[in-house]
Write a structure and sequence with these properties.
Layout lengths: L2 H31 L12 H11 L2 H13 L2 E10 L3 E8 L4 E7 L3 H11 L12 H21 L7 E5 L2 E5 L2 E2 L2 E2 L12 H17 L3 E2 L8 E4 L2 E4 L6 E2 L5 H18 L7 H10 L3
Antiparallel strand pairs: 1-2, 2-3, 3-5, 4-5, 6-7, 8-11, 9-10
Helix pairs in contact: 1-3, 4-5, 6-7, 7-8
Bound molecules: adenosine-5'-triphosphate (ATP) and magnesium ion.
């Protein structure tokens, strides 16, 4: 690495440190004084937060993120929304000062192994790289493409803005600095029957209009925003021509029906719904 890059990296790391040490906590405190769902703001202990940042920000990711901050489309990274096994999601701002969600996939050899299974068999991906970071980049671009495809046909998913290597920038779903809650954390959705119908239409339209099956659809991957569902985490979604598409579809349907069952809602027959999806033309 040349001296210039080293400096830029160092500068960026310092910037992040400052962001994390000062801004995150004070922003959160400010918000806690305001409104909405205070429970959504978890006090993340400083060391955990640092560990999450360190594990996702390998040198190359730091470099890529820095480029996005210097050349756009990012203006700043504010704080972490979620630290997960495969990816961390951050709240950031674009050059217009609008909130964006930044999903950064970790370069990790374990996750790249199962990622391969989803990529193999998808006719959209002909060449499968061996290199761990290339698989993760492909995975991130898969989520970007899937989001684009679903968004283009009017489905309720975040609008994807930008992808660079393992960094995906998309529409932020939330109210100011408070991200929308996951459906699993919503005690009582306002109109569960309407919500169920919207989710069943989502499954059907994703299949027929976007020609995709989500593959990990459940209350853990649905945000509840303005009393409407917004489906996220669509990286593992496969083309309806993928050999496992129907298995994934059956699993998605099972999960959604189970969720509404638990809410005490009378659901149609999952089998019937499954056949309706795969046998109708639209
Ligand atoms: N566009 C968005 N706007 C607001 N919050 C988001 C957005 N995308 C993701 N999130 C938040 O980040 C969390 C993790 O996102 P996502 O489900 O896409 O990642 P993941 O692949 O499940 O990560 P992991 O499996 O490693 O936890 C979500 O549960 C949600 O709370
Ligand atoms: Mg998820």
């Amino acid at each position: 690495m040349d001296e210039n890059n080293k400096n830029t990296n160092q500068e960026f790391e310092d910037f992040l440190d400052e962001e994390l040490d000062n801004k995150f906590d004070s922003d959160i405190d400010e918000l806690q004084k305001t409104k909405v769902d205070n429970k959504r703001i978890k006090k993340i202990d400083q060391s955990k937060k640092r560990a999450a940042i360190d594990s996702v920000f390998d040198e190359r990711t730091v470099f890529t993120l820095n480029r996005l901050l210097v050349n756009g489309p990012l203006e700043r990274v504010k704080g972490i929304i979620s630290a997960g096994k495969e990816a961390n999601v951050y709240l950031g701002y674009n050059l217009k000062g609008e909130e964006v969600a930044i999903k950064i996939y970790k370069i990790d050899s374990n996750t790249s192994k199962w990622m391969r299974n989803y990529i193999i068999g998808d006719p959209r991906f002909k060449k499968i790289p061996r290199n761990v970071s290339k698989i993760v980049f492909l995975w991130a671009s898969k989520e970007f493409k899937n989001l684009k495809r679903a968004h283009k046909v009017g489905l309720s998913v975040p609008n994807p803005h930008f992808i660079k290597n393992n960094i995906l920038i998309m529409e932020y779903i939330g109210f100011e600095s408070i991200p929308a809650p996951l459906l699993k954390d919503v005690k009582k959705p306002k109109d569960p029957i309407e919500l169920m119908n919207e989710l069943l239409s989502f499954i059907k339209n994703l299949y027929h209009k976007a020609k995709l099956v989500h593959g990990d659809l459940s209350e853990f991957n649905i945000l509840y925003h303005n009393q409407k569902p917004v489906v996220i985490d669509i990286s593992q979604a496969v083309s309806i021509h993928h050999p496992k598409a129907e298995t994934f579809l059956a699993r998605d349907i099972k999960n959604i029906f189970k969720y509404f069952d638990k809410l005490g809602i009378e659901t149609p027959s999952p089998n019937e719904f499954y056949y309706k999806v795969i046998n109708t033309d639209n």
